[in-house]
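Chapter summary example: a protein plus alpha-D-ribofuranose.
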Amino acid sequence: MKVTIREVAAKAGVSPATVSRVVGNYGYVSQKTRRKVLAAVKELGYRPDSIARSLVTRATHTIGLVVTDITNPFFANLVRGVEEVTWQHGYTLILANTDEDMQREKAVIQTLQEKRVDAFIVVPASSQGSPHLQEVVSQGIPLVLVDRGVHNLAVDTVMVDNEEGAYKAVSHLIRLGHSRIGIVLDNLKITTNEERLAGYRRALLENSLTAEESLIQSCRFTQHSAYELVSNMLAGHERPTALFTANNFMTIGAIQAIREAGLSIPQDIALVGFDDLEWNLVNVPYLTAVAQPVFEMGNIAAQRVIAQLKGEENSVMEIRLKTKFIVRQSCGVPSQTNSGRRSNPKLDQEI
Ligand code: RIB
């Protein structure tokens, strides 16, 4: 049976109107009363009908979109994918960055709640418990996670098959004869990197190769951090013969480090990157990459939050989109046409 607002009111010892103000985050409520109501909401598992909420709370027709770094083309594409759908349904986005920082994520979520956004779409800065996101759920505000998930937070989540994508990339390098394959990751507290590392380990394990911890390294989410990490990795004895970079910024930093070390791709070191972006086609040799359907991921995340706002959906969904592994020239077997000219990167094979 669906828990009613009256049951919550009775539990908290307040009026239904007070519960409505707390859940709808409008009007005045003392902190003491707010705490009592939220405790009752959580204990009873109350989820307000979003239609009733929007009627009473005078919806603002805005959606808070929280990403980690809008200067990253991946997130710029994601935002455009979200906005294509939300705009069609009469919602305006309010965008905020978190720089992969949990405290900053908490602060922007709080501010957007004070601005009374009708819903949230969030790229979480951590896969671990996020009390501020749990609070959003407890208050019955529609929330969808995109690109990464949060463990033990049962909300709609739209991601790609990170583990399978990484597994395909590293298996390809192994098929080419590489056994000392480094992996370059950034924030280890997010599910994308947890899953890409798992795919890397599975590929090695299935080929009876050991995952040397010295070849598994992580840094901050910036290109420069990746450059410094790979420079050190290449300077060490027994450098890897191949690198798997876990996202676009790691790839850019790695390419810079490889070139500054006087090494060539793929002759001295093979390179496969997660994230395929337009610059791959201007960078020679053309990058072998795991392509994510970023724009589509944004579309679907927006469709889910609109469905929640319309009260059309109450079941929580985890949606996984397929990645595409595109073999070009950076992983050890230049795809030369029979005339010996470089092939057209647009035509390179997808496997
Ligand atoms: O470039 C940003 C990366 O971090 C992407 O791979 C995306 O999946 C996110 O995890």
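Key point: The pocket of alpha-D-ribofuranose is lined by residues 72, 74, 147-148, 190, 192, 247-249, 274-275 (CB under 6 Å).
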